[in-house]
């Protein structure tokens, strides 16, 4: 993808994901998305890009994701834990770990099932839930994941999560997080602000 097309590709992918997963009444207008994003391409540009992306995906926009595998694995594994031990396998924590992995481009090359099982296996080891070893092997067998692939991705996930929980990651350089806008860009943003039609007010309902 050429750098000049990245914005259009990103917004088109986002729009496809929204249309595939949200109810029709919650899907925003393409014109609103383009306006909010402050890109300069047109709706027709975005529609053409959508078609290109769909063709690359063979029109399969509802592929099973690592998150869905994680949900499935967690629900199956949970059945093998006693009530007092279930708190040690927290789904929100697993979801956070998976999100951390998704921030690294290398994990886009992992099969969703392998990535999800890697996260699950590491958490089981971390929490010392040894009674789940057999259930984990069962999931690996039925997901058709070989030991070599699982070991390879587990090592990468462990490295990622170790860095993610380190002080270097949890205390980022605030200076680098500041968005510095040039005077020229600031003037352009100010002028464009007065030209756009504002989004409708979200109605409030009394509880």
TrEMBL record:
Transmembrane segment boundaries: none
Protein name (Swiss-Prot/TrEMBL): CCNG1 protein
Pfam families: Cyclin_N (PF00134)
Taxonomic superkingdom: Eukaryota
Native source species: Scopus umbretta (Hammerkop)
All copies of domain Cyclin N-terminal, residue ranges: 1-61
InterPro entries: Cyclin, Cyclin-like_sf, Cyclin_N
């Amino acid at each position: 993808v050429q750098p000049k097309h990245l914005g259009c590709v990103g917004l088109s992918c986002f729009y496809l994901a929204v249309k595939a997963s949200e109810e029709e009444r919650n899907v925003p207008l393409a014109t609103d998305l383009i306006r909010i994003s402050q890109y300069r391409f047109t709706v027709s540009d975005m529609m053409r890009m959508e078609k290109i992306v769909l063709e690359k995906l063979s029109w399969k926009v509802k592929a099973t994701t690592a998150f869905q595998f994680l949900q499935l694995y967690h629900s199956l594994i949970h059945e093998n834990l006693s009530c007092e031990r279930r708190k040690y396998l927290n789904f929100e924590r697993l979801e956070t770990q998976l999100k951390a992995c998704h921030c690294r481009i290398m994990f886009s090359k992992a099969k969703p099932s392998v990535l999800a099982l890697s996260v699950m296996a590491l958490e089981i080891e971390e929490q010392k839930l040894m009674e789940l070893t057999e259930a984990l092997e069962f999931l690996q067998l039925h997901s058709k994941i070989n030991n070599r692939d699982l070991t390879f991705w587990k090592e990468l996930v462990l490295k990622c999560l170790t860095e993610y929980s380190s002080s270097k990651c949890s205390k980022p350089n605030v200076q680098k997080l500041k968005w510095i806008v040039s005077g020229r860009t600031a003037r352009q943003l100010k002028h464009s602000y007065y030209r756009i039609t504002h989004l409708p007010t979200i109605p409030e309902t009394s509880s």
